[in-house]
Design a protein that fits this description.
The structure is a single chain. This protein has a two-stranded antiparallel ribbon. The chain is built from 4 helices and 2 strands. The radius of gyration is 18 Å and the shape is flat. Helices cover about 45% and strands about 10% of the residues. By secondary structure, it is mainly α. The model has no long low-confidence stretch (mean pLDDT about 90). Helix 3 crosses helix 4 (about 70-85). Strand 1 and strand 2 (about 55-60) form a beta hairpin.
C-alpha cells in the first residue's frame, strides 16, 4: 500500500516545490519581515465593483487558484509565528 501512495505523490509535478516551501526554516528576523511584507495577508485580486453606490458584481479571490497557495500561506504563517514567539515582536502591522 505504501508503494502505491509514493507513486501517486510523485505524479504531482509541483511536489518538489511544495516540499521545498514546506522545508524552509526561519531563523532570521529580517527574512521573516521580508516574507510577511512580500506575501499578502489577503488576496489582492478580490474586488467588489460598484457604480453609484450599487454593487454591480464581485470578483472572487483568484489566489486560491494558485496550486502553491497553501504552502505560501503556510510560509507566511511560520514567519509570523517566528516574529511573535521567538523575537517577541508585535505582528499586528502584518494582519
Amino acid at each position: 500500500m505504501s508503494s502505491f501512495i509514493q507513486v501517486q505523490l510523485h505524479k504531482d509535478p509541483l511536489y518538489p516545490v511544495r516540499e521545498w516551501l514546506e522545508s524552509i526554516e526561519i531563523h532570521n528576523s529580517k527574512f521573516a519581515h521580508f516574507l510577511c511584507k512580500a506575501i499578502p495577508a489577503q488576496c489582492p485580486f478580490e474586488r467588489e465593483i460598484t457604480l453609484f453606490g450599487r454593487k454591480l458584481f464581485h470578483i472572487p479571490p483568484m489566489c486560491k487558484l494558485n496550486p502553491l497557495y497553501e504552502e505560501v500561506v503556510g510560509l507566511r504563517f511560520r514567519a509570523l509565528c517566528y516574529l511573535a514567539d521567538e523575537c517577541g515582536e508585535d505582528i499586528t502591522a502584518y494582519c
